[in-house]
Structures are given as structure tokens and as C-alpha cells.
TrEMBL record:
Family as reported in the entry's similarity comment: Belongs to the UDP-glycosyltransferase family.
Enzyme kind, highest EC tier: transferase
Reactions that this protein is recorded to catalyse: an anthocyanidin + UDP-alpha-D-glucose + H(+) = an anthocyanidin 3-O-beta-D-glucoside + UDP
Spans traversing the lipid bilayer: 18-36
Pathway of action: Pigment biosynthesis; anthocyanin biosynthesis
Keywords noted in UniProt: Glycosyltransferase, Membrane, Transferase, Transmembrane, Transmembrane helix
Lineage of the organism: Eukaryota, Viridiplantae, Streptophyta, Embryophyta, Tracheophyta
Origin: domain of life: Eukaryota
E.C. numbers: 2.4.1.-
Protein's UniProt name: Glycosyltransferase
Length: 507
């Protein structure tokens, strides 16, 4: 005993207190574990409930029945489906390529109506659009009713911006409405200026100043704006996209924030614009959408095996890929000049010449260039652009092709033909600086010498270094936009969340 304190009692008290503390600590740990388990159980129930609601949230997408419009709408549909929504793409066409396609998680419903293609005259645009409106007006309520009876009622209609009247039909059916613009923001801004009466047409001035846009010359504008004689109805249709845009619950664009930030900030003053692009198969961007390797739609049968085998035998960045899309029609002399330019460039080339255009093909050209080139009637463009041997893309600058090249980091030789392609070419050469634009002569022809010079500029000269560097920069940003938490991905996720919330509150 020390100073009246028993050592043994002291040790006993210490042990007792330690035991109590350990006991309390074990109980706290057990309680934390139980709470964590319960939290996980609740979260799983909530996630399961959210996934169930998402799977029951049904979106109907309605593209304009042309490949250049169906493809981006289908890709947007795949993105929505990858977020858990039930998505049906409705196509009013009888084309075999639509019927036979694989579309993964998106259900494709095809409706053929005899009146859709009836009484087509010289004024095809007006008659066709009127027929399309009448068909959708008559048949869409039937489609919506049928899905309602199946237990998966449609809650939202996503429609092509060139069908602005679709929002009125959606409203009558009690559906939310979202519009998807399949052209660039820059081009859309020009059509909006026309719609507002700020840009008078036909444009006759050599230089045009438009807020939010780089300095433009007349031939940088969409052809509809200065060639009314040939495209009077196309201009009216393009401007009508904005006739009731304020009635749409969402306004989506096939672009991404950083690509057109200036125009985006400008147009966002008018309505809440949400970029959701680039709408190209996930395999070539973020690789997050399962089995999304191609569009699944093609007007023509591509010669995949011969194209890829030929490319495999070439050196990296050594091939000029040439394609002017599914609609462009070139004159016989222009075909000859392209052939001449390719031959003089001394570079390997893969040239797509559609079956309908082959009769214009220069005689003996194939024999003279057999060691340098391959000519096919169609090819798998995404696979070609992604191939290491492709050094540049000679393109008409359709918006889908432009976005594909940007997303793959492929420099371009821009040779626009009509519509929005001229404006896209302006941005390719002077804004994004990912390529060069050919010049036409007094007769509207791009000469072989001009083509040779532009190919060399992109493939060989010092400018090629900067162009390739810029192309790689935009490739990176395009992929980041659709990747997890990218700007476009966030806009899509926000749309999905609002639809699910709306479905939950209305159930």
C-alpha cells in the first residue's frame, strides 16, 4: 500500500474502465455497421426504384426521314437509352435500309403511309413536308395510344427541328416536347437572323457582319441565303425552325459547348440551348454505350473488307480519303478535275464514287493510278476516318461528316457543295483551323491544280503541323464532351433526370 492506496484495487479499476470503454467502442462500431448496411439497403431500394421509373419513362424520337437526320437522332436515342430510358424511334419511310438495321437498345417503329409520297411535283419540298405533316398528324395519336395500352405510355416527343409543327401535335397529346437541331449552331444562328428579319435575303453584299460570328463573305453563307432562285422553299423551311421554338420544353443541338461557345452564348439569350453532341457512335468517342459501333443505317452497302485491307497496307497518315456524302452530285468536268488533282498530288487516295456517279468517272484513270488509289462505291466512313493510315479527309463538309472528322482528329480539305456546307467549311478553315478550303474558278469549278495544292498544304507543308495539332485538340474536346460528366453528357443526364422526376410526380 502506498499512502493509503491499494495497488491491486487501482489495477482492477483501470481494467474495469478499459473494459467499459472497449465495450462502448464495440457497440458504436456495431451501430455504425448496422447504419451503413441499412443505408446501403435504402440506397439500393431507391436506385432500384429510380431504375424502374427510368425504364418505364418512355421517349418517342421523330427524325426527318433522311439519313443525315435519322443518324444523329438515332445516336441521341441510344444515349438516352444508355441512361435507362425506354426509347422508340419512329420512322415514316419505307426504305429497306431502315427495316434491316440493327439499333441495339432503341426500338425502331416504321410506318409507311401511301399519302406520304403522293402527288410529288416540281415543288418537292413543300409537297413532301405537307404530306409528312398530314401523315404525322394522323398517325402519331395512334402510335401514342398503342404504347399507352402496352403499359409503357409515352411521356416526351423528341422531334427534328425541321418539323416545328410536331410540338403542337405533342401538346395536343399531352406530351412534353424537345427539339433536336441536326445542323451547327452557327448555321442555325444565320437562319434565326433571317427569321427575325435582321438578315435580309437574298444577301447581295460581298461582306456580311453577324453578331457572334466571324467576318463572313457571301459564299460563306448557306446557299439558301443568296441563291433564292434555286432554293426558295429550302430557305423558308430552314427559317421556320424558329417559328415556335419557345413552345418546346427543351432545345437540343448536335454540337458541343467549346466548339461553338461564342454562338452558343449569343443564342442562349433567346432560349435555353443544350448541346448534346457530337452524336456519333460511342465506340469512336467515350466507349460507354454498349455495342454502339456504327449508326446502323446506310443507304448504300459499304465495301468494308476491301477498304480496310487496302488501308492496312498503307503507312500512317499517308492516305487522302475523298467522299462527298450521299446526296452531292458533281458534274463530269468536276470529276475529271478531282481525278487530276489526286493524281498530281502523288499521295495514296481512297475515293468514294457512288454507283450513280460512276458514269462521269474519267476513262483510264483507274489504270493510271492503280498503284496509288482505290475507288469504291461506298465505304464504312467511321472506320476509315479512325484508321491510322488516313492523313486527311477531302469532304463536302456536311455537318455529320464534319463532326466525325473533328471527333477523330482528321484534318480536312473542304470542298462544300450547297446548303450549310459552305458555312461549315468556313469554320473548318478559319475558326477551328483544322483544314483548308478549296477555291473555285470563274466557272464554279475547283481545278485539279487547286486540289493538288490544298492536299499538299494539309499533308506536307509547314501548315500541316498546326492543322494536325488543332485537329488533335478538337478530337480531345469532342470526346470529353460526351464522356462522363462532360458538358454534353451533363445536358443529357439532366434531361433524363427531369423526365424521371416528371414521371414519378405524375404516377
Amino acid at each position: 500500500m502506498i499512502w493509503g492506496y491499494n495497488r491491486k484495487d487501482f489495477q482492477t479499476q483501470i481494467k474495469g474502465r478499459l473494459f467499459i470503454r472497449i465495450y462502448i467502442l464495440l457497440n458504436i462500431c456495431a451501430l455504425i455497421y448496422i447504419c451503413a448496411q441499412e443505408r446501403e439497403r435504402i440506397l439500393k431500394e431507391l436506385m432500384g426504384s429510380e431504375q424502374r421509373v427510368a425504364a418505364e419513362t418512355h421517349v418517342l424520337t421523330l427524325p426527318l426521314p433522311f439519313q443525315g437526320h435519322i443518324n444523329p437522332m438515332l445516336q441521341f436515342s441510344k444515349r438516352l437509352a444508355s441512361k435507362g430510358l425506354k426509347v422508340t424511334l419512329l420512322s415514316f419511310t419505307d426504305k429497306e435500309w431502315t427495316k434491316a438495321a440493327e439499333h441495339g437498345s432503341v426500338n425502331v417503329q416504321i410506318i409507311f403511309d401511301d399519302t406520304l409520297f403522293a402527288e410529288i411535283t416540281d415543288q418537292e419540298d413543300t409537297v413532301y413536308i405537307n404530306n409528312l405533316y398530314a401523315t404525322v398528324k394522323r398517325r402519331l395519336p395512334e402510335v401514342v395510344a398503342k404504347h399507352g395500352e402496352s403499359g409503357y405510355p409515352i411521356s416526351c416527343l423528341v422531334y427534328d427541328s425541321l418539323m416545328p409543327w410536331a410540338i403542337d401535335i405533342a401538346t395536343e397529346l399531352g406530351l412534353l416536347g424537345a427539339t433536336l437541331f441536326t445542323q451547327s449552331l452557327a448555321v442555325s444562328n444565320l437562319y434565326y437572323e433571317v427569321h427575325q428579319g435582321k438578315l435580309k435575303v437574298p444577301v447581295e453584299k460581298t461582306a456580311v457582319a453577324v453578331e457572334g460570328m466571324p467576318p463572313l463573305e457571301i459564299h460563306d453563307l448557306p446557299t439558301f441565303l443568296f441563291d433564292l432562285e434555286n432554293y426558295p422553299l429550302s430557305l423558308k423551311l430552314s427559317a421556320s425552325q424558329f417559328s415556335n421554338i419557345g413552345e418546346a420544353d427543351w432545345v437540343f443541338f448536335n454540337t458541343f459547348n467549346s466548339l461553338e461557345d461564342e454562338v452558343l452564348n449569343l443564342m442562349a439569350r433567346q432560349c435555353a440551348i443544350k448541346p448534346v453532341g457530337p452524336t456519333i457512335p460511342s465506340m469512336y468517342t467515350d466507349k460507354r454505350v454498349k455495342d454502339d459501333k456504327d449508326y446502323g443505317l446506310s443507304l448504300f452497302k459499304p465495301d468494308v473488307e476491301s477498304c480496310m485491307k487496302w488501308l492496312d497496307s498503307r503507312e500512317p497518315c499517308s492516305v487522302v480519303y475523298v467522299s462527298f456524302g450521299s446526296l452531292s452530285i458533281l458534274g463530269e468536268r468536276q470529276m475529271e478535275e478531282i481525278a487530276c488533282g489526286l493524281k498530281m498530288s502523288c499521295h495514296y487516295f481512297l475515293w468514294v464514287v457512288r454507283e450513280t456517279e460512276k458514269e462521269k468517272f474519267p476513262s483510264r484513270f483507274l489504270d493510271e493510278t492503280s498503284e496509288k488509289g482505290l475507288v469504291v462505291t461506298w465505304c464504312p466512313q467511321l472506320e476509315v476516318l479512325a484508321h491510322k493510315s488516313v492523313g486527311c479527309f477531302m469532304t463536302h463538309c456536311g455537318w455529320n461528316s464534319t463532326l466525325e472528322a473533328l471527333s477523330m482528329g482528321v484534318p480536312m480539305v473542304a470542298m462544300p457543295q450547297w446548303a450549310d456546307q459552305t458555312t461549315n467549311a468556313k469554320f473548318v478553315a478559319d475558326v477551328w483551323r483544322v483544314g483548308v478550303r478549296v477555291k473555285v474558278d470563274e466557272e464554279g469549278i475547283v481545278t485539279g491544280t487547286e486540289i493538288e495544292l490544298r492536299i499538299r498544304e494539309v499533308m506536307e507543308e509547314e501548315t500541316a503541323i498546326e492543322i494536325r495539332k488543332n485537329s488533335e485538340k478538337w478530337e480531345k474536346q469532342a470526346k470529353e464532351a460526351v464522356d462522363e460528366d462532360g458538358s454534353s453528357d451533363k445536358n443529357i443526364q439532366e434531361f433524363v433526370a427531369k423526365l424521371i422526376c416528371n414521371s414519378t410526380s405524375s404516377s
